[in-house]
Specification:
Blueprint lengths: L7 E4 L3 H12 L4 E4 L29 H6 L55 H4 L10 H21 L2
Parallel strand pairs: 1-2
């Protein structure tokens, strides 16, 4: 295989990486996206997505055995019977901690958003809170300006038949 050059390399195809790759490609940059893990097929590989908690073992709660087997991953509030298969094995993918740090990881195409159990929270004007001087701009307002286009596209896509 010959040598190839790229204008940009994006690591990960999750929400941020996927969006960055899209924007770079639309600007004409030759972009390489690197991903680690398995490809999950939409709907087919989300075997627990449409189940109610009572249809899953232990009413969808992590057991003591789950927590013992996954001492780091199981501390995330979204770790349960429906999502535990998305997380890495703490014992197989161990890392040394200089300071306490819980690194929640899943090795699959699409990033950590697939582990969020359909929870995606958005900032509102209430999150900005406080009084701002005429010279300062709220961080949330800046983010809304940067990401407003994406947010509107996502809202429009959600209502399409």
């Amino acid at each position: 295989m010959g040598t190839q050059t790229y204008d940009a390399i994006v690591v990960g195809s999750g929400m941020s990486g996927g969006w960055a790759a899209k924007e770079l490609c639309e600007k004409g940059l030759k972009t390489l996206v690197l991903e680690r893990g398995q490809q999950l097929r939409h709907v087919t590989d989300y075997t627990t997505a449409l189940k109610d908690p009572w249809q899953l073992p232990h009413n969808n709660r992590a057991t003591n055995a789950d927590k013992a087997a996954q001492p780091i991953q199981s501390t995330l509030y979204l770790y349960d019977q429906s999502t535990k298969g998305m997380f890495v094995d703490d014992n197989r993918y161990h890392y040394e901690q200089a300071k306490p740090f819980n690194w929640y990881r899943g090795y699959h195409v699409g990033g950590r958003s697939l582990m969020w159990s359909r929870h995606v929270f958005r900032f509102s004007d209430l999150d900005c809170g406080g009084v701002h001087s005429s010279d300062s701009v709220c961080q949330c307002a800046r983010a809304a300006g940067r990401f407003g286009r994406r947010s509107r596209q996502a809202d429009a896509a959600a209502v399409q038949p």
